[in-house]
Amino acid sequence: MRRLCVIGDPIEHSKSPLIQNAMIEAAGLDFVYDARRVAGADTARWLEQAKKEGYAGFNATMPHKEHLVPLVDVLSADAAQYRSVNTVCIREGKTYGHSTDGVGFAQALREAGMEPEGKRVLVLGAGGAAKAVVLKLAQAGAARIAVANRTADRAARLCALTGTDRAQPGPFDTEALKRQAEGAHIVVNCTSLGMTGVAGQFEDLSFLRELGADAGVYDLIYSPAKTALLERAEQLGLKTANGLGMLVWQGVYALEHFAGTKLDGAALAAAARKALEGET
After folding, report:
1. Residue 178 has what pLDDT?
2. DSSP assigned state of 94
3. CA–CA separation, 171 vs 151, rounded Å?
4. What is the pTM of this model?
5. How many CB atoms lie within 10 A of CB 32?
6. Degrees (nearest 5) of the Cα angle 92, 95, 99?
């Protein structure tokens, strides 16, 4: 069997081994997948170690995604644009870096009934997770992308990366969120507010009332399954989805890179969700 894994620090919480092994079995592939704790300072050392140990590839989470960008031999278009690598394939000693976060997010968003093309989107946060989201929304033809963030410069830099004036930065206070939410079709939360084990919560969710009746709210958080943001959106009759879909679909696309072929994504996603349900 060919070896795969996910690296990160910490890594004990990762759902990737559960998801990937379920999909590997469903696809009948000759892989085995585990988790390896690799410190942030050891990214380059791990890359050489993975080659020596005969790994077919690996996924990467914090803090390695940006570290891998200058280290791999070949970068995919998305990885180069996002300056982030979450999937590395190793073939004949050569390393190929990909980012499946953006495409995984886009598929999960559409699966949730929130097609971004021609829509006005409010993105909350401008950190690492927001980068793939905002750039993919721009690629997908969103009509307007408002990026709300407490640090104005960070939001402005992220918007500039899109190369379009359709992405505009804005503040993250209650009144500003109300203004930015007015007329928006989709809200995407890329902050850690509401996440299990994180103290921070949204101070005021009244901005959700400014959305139209057919709007949707997508929260990248999947633990808990229903954050305060999603609970309030649901109460208002809005479409809602958590980040589990993105987690699953980025894993589907990563496995396609490892296998070097197109797979039955819907079947793999179903197998991953079944495995996750069995864990709870």
Report:
1. 97
2. E
3. 8
4. 0.93
5. 15
6. 140
Residues in Cβ contact with 64 at an 8 Å cutoff, skipping those fewer than 6 apart: 7, 8, 38, 40, 43, 85
Coil/strand/helix, residue 51: helix
* DSSP code, position 207: G
Which tokens belong to 31? 């892989």
Q: Pick from 120, 246, 136: which is nearest to 186 by CA?
A: 120
Taking a C-beta distance cutoff of 8 angstroms, is the pair 190, 130 a contact?
Answer: yes
Are the C-beta atoms of 188 and 218 separated by less than 8 Å? yes
Compute the distance between CA of residue 194 and CA of residue 190 in angstroms, rounded to an integer: 11
> Is 131 annotated as catalytic?
no
Q: Phi first, then psi: what are they for 176, rounded to 5°? A: -65, -40
72-115 pLDDT, tens per residue? 999 999 999 999 999 999 999 999 999 999 999 999 999 999 99
* Residue 187: closest CA among 172, 199, 165, 203: 172
For domain 2-99+245-279, which CATH number applies: 3.40.640.10, 3.40.50.10860, 3.30.450.20, 3.40.50.150?
3.40.50.10860
Q: Where are the domains of the chain?
A: 2-99+245-279, 103-242
Q: Could you tell me which CATH number the domain at 103-242 has?
A: 3.40.50.720
Asked if 2-99+245-279 and 103-242 have one fold, the answer is: yes
Catalytic residue chosen out of the listed positions 15, 52, 65, 119? 65
Ranges of residues in the chain with a pLDDT under 70 are: 280
